[in-house]
C-alpha cells in the first residue's frame, strides 16, 4: 500500500474509533493501540503533507456534540494533551520546554491523569451557571442539570476566608473550572452487582459507564449513579493566579474537589520519581487513572510556550500501559448466578500484577473464550483496570504447549446438571432450573435479605448456606417459619482458603466457624420480624423477578399501588408504565403467571409482608386534567415539586418521567432544563408557563 493510501486508511480507521469512543462510549481497540496508530498517521502526514485530510484526527479533538442536548460554545477551547508512553519522549518534552523559555527557570506540577470525561463548569457571581462536555473542543453539550447531581461540585463557591493577604480570597465574578467527571470504582462495582443481580448486561468499564451516564437525559437517573469529579484547572479573562499551584490550593479553599495527589517538581528527575511512585500506587485510588499529567507551573510561562492546534505545548501526559502479566491458564470453573447465568472463571498460576497476586481472572462468557481462541495450558495475558477481578485479554500463541487442550464449554449446569440454554442475542448460557439449582437458590436468599429488599442482613456470611444445608429453609418464604428452637446452637466450620503472598509464598489461611448463639438468633428473628414492615416496593424487588431492579419495583408500586392490581394488569398496561417497557413487562407478566410463583407470593402474603403501597392517595379536586400527561422542569413561584405533583394528580392528570411522544404538556419554570425544553420542541410537545398551567386547573 502506498503511504498516501495508508494515510486515507488510518484517517478513516481512527475517525471510526473516535466516533465509537466519544459517541457510543465504546473502545473498539485499547488506548495503546489507538495512540500508536495516531502516531503512525502523524509521522506519515509530516512526510506527505499533501495527503493529509482536513478531517484528520491528528489536528482535531476527538469528540463531537450530540443532538439531544443544547449546544454551548466554550469560552476557551477544550484541548487534548500530547501523550507518550516512554521516558525518552519525556526528556525531549523537558528539552523543548527549556528551549522555549530561553533559560528562564521553571517548575512542573504533576497530577494524576484521571480516566473519565472532560467537563467544563462556568461560575458567575459565585454560582454554577453552566456545565458542558468537551465535545469537539469548540462546542460541547450542555449537561448542567446532570452536573448538579454531583455532590462534590459546589453550586455556590465558598467565599475566601477574608484573610486579605492576596487577591485570591475574593472570588472573581466570572470564571471557569475544568475537571474530569468519573464513576468511582466502588460505585461501578455496586452498579454492576445490581445489574448482574437483575439480569442486565454488565457495564464494560468505569470510563465508558461515566461517559454514558453524563449523556443521559433524565437527571434523576443520573443522580442515582454517584458520579464524582476532580477539578484540575482554572480559567478566566482577568488574571487571578500566577501559578497553577496557587489555583489548585485556592480552588480547594473555594470548595472544589481537588485530588490531593498532585506534586510540585523542580526537575524532570523529580517528575520521573513521581511517575515511578504512582506506577502501582495508583491502584489504591478510588478511580481509574491511566497516567500522569505534567504541566509547567507558571501561567506566564504557559502563555509563552503556547499551543498546537490540538494541545498545549506546556503540558504532556505520560501514559501507563495497562498493567499486564503473562501466566498459565490451568483450569476454568463455571459459576452460576442468581438468574442462572453461567460465568466462566479462569484459574491461573499465581502471578504478580500491579502489586497484588492474581490467581483468578474473568473470561466473561462463551463468546469471549471463542474470540480469544484460548486453550487450557496456554500462556495468557491478564490485565487489571481498577476492577477487583482482572481480565484475560489475550493468548501468547508462541508459547502454546503440545499438551494444550481445547476448552469444552459445558452443555449442562455444573451445579445441577440441567441442560444450559442460550437465548437469541444473549451472551450468557443459562441454567433454567431456577427453583432447585443450589447456587441459584442460595443467591435468591442473598437477594431477598439485602438492605434494599427485606433488610435481614444479619443472615449473611454463610448463615443462609447453613440453613439450606440443614434443610431448614428451601425458599425465602420459609424464613418466616424459623423459630428460636430451630436456630439455636446450629454450627458449622468452613475450611480455610489458602492465601498467596506477593513473594509467591502460600499460607493456609483461617478456617471460619458460623455459630448461632442466643444473641445471633435474637438478632436474626428480630430482623425477620421487622422485615414485615418493609415497604411494598422492597417486597416486590425482593421477589427477584428478572429485570425488576429496585427502581423499577418502585415505579410499578407507584403506578399500581397494590400487588393485586399489579397481578391483574394485562401485558399492555404493564408495558405502558413509565420506564418499564416491553422487556421488563414481559418478564414480570410471565413471572406472575407461573403457578409456583403464585404459591410463593401467597406464602409471603400469609407471612404478613406489605403488599399495598403506603403512599397517600390524593383526593380528587377536579377532572380538569383527566387523560392528560404532564412533566415539569425548573422551579415555580406557587408550587414546590411536591405541590406540583399533587396538583397534577388531584386534578386527574398523570405525571411522566421524561419527554417522549406520550407527553401532552411540559410545564416550564425558571431555570428549566435546556435538554428537556429542546426535546419538547423537537417532538412538538406544547409547553406551558406556570400561569397557563394554573389556568388549566380552573
Ligand atoms: N481506544 C479507543 O478506541 C480510543 C478512541 C479514541 C480515543 N482514545 C484514547 O483517548 C485519547 C484521546 O483522548 P483525549 O483527547 O481526551 O486526550 P487524552 O485523554 O490523552 O488527554 C486529555 C484529557 O485528559 C483528561 N485529564 C485527566 N486528568 C487530567 C489532568 N490532571 N489535567 C488535565 N487533563 C486531564 C482531560 O479530560 C483531558 O481532556 C487517545 O490518546 C486514546 O488513548 C481511545
Ligand atoms: Zn443449575
Automatic annotation (TrEMBL):
TM regions (residue ranges): none
SUPFAM superfamilies, A to Z: BRCT domain, DNA ligase/mRNA capping enzyme, catalytic domain, Nucleic acid-binding proteins, RuvA domain 2-like
Residue sites binding NAD(+) per the record: 31-35, 80-81, 111, 134, 180, 295, 319
Cofactor names: Mg(2+); Mn(2+)
Stored HAMAP family: DNA_ligase_A
Protein name as annotated: DNA ligase
Domain of life: Bacteria
Organism: Fibrella rubiginis
General function of this protein: DNA ligase that catalyzes the formation of phosphodiester linkages between 5'-phosphoryl and 3'-hydroxyl groups in double-stranded DNA using NAD as a coenzyme and as the energy source for the reaction. It is essential for DNA replication and repair of damaged DNA.
Binding site for Zn(2+): 413, 416, 431, 437
